[in-house]
């Protein structure tokens, strides 16, 4: 009851807040319907080896084929999804779908790898190591072909046994990367306390070719720290050649960005980025 509290008290339930709550509930129902109806899809963005500029893996990125609003990016629905009860289920679907796709593409390009973003809800389920192992087994995918991306939001808001689950996952050979590194509040000691294999330098550090010397020094420093710790470095958001050359000269290992290709559908990815199948020897 928010009325009649007397002067000095704030009325907590305004009509528009009730309307917002209704809208939120409706959106949650719409999300659930969309998931059951198969409206979610994965797009894939190429990741390249910085030495030979060959596409060696892809990052799976969720999209929503909305019947009215068209193709929606995660920015339009991911927060709502993560706030609701569906996040764990959708996360597991993303993992399974991406593993299935990677297994298919590996028939054409045997060393192909896949990166999948994780959400906090998947750790809260408590059985992520088993879920990951089951997905690998189901699709006959070797553990080192899978990389799971975590963000500092997952680690810093952790109220579960995330470190334990990450150790169990890493012990199976699955790779773990720290996404969006260098923009948030995560401190450098996370790099030595979490069992990660790679850092992804955030796309906030793009346009390095034209960046200020100070920004360039920060990125050089991040690469050096990662190298010293034996971690792989993946740069996101490479949009121009100057940035690519800058990162190549600093021995960044992998890169992704619009310069190499935008996230795209399965068919487009196979057409644009997958190498042709190994040639059969014939007489
Ligand atoms: P992220 O994991 O850091 O993914 C990279 C984002 O940068 C993608 O946005 C991608 O389209 C965009 N990007 C790639 N190259 C460039 C570039 O050269 N320039 C610029 N400006 N942007 C580039 P997208 O697909 O909108 O995804 C946004 C975020 O949503 C992702 O950021 C990730 O945190 C989250 N996300 C996407 N798919 C999933 C998913 O399946 N599960 C979870 N939990 N999160 C996801
Ligand atoms: Mg990512
Ligand atoms: Mg990122
Ligand atoms: Mg991000």
TrEMBL record:
<feature type="domain" description="EAL">
    <location>
        <begin position="24"/>
        <end position="277"/>
    </location>
</feature>
<protein>
    <submittedName>
        <fullName>PAS domain S-box-containing protein/diguanylate cyclase (GGDEF)-like protein</fullName>
    </submittedName>
</protein>
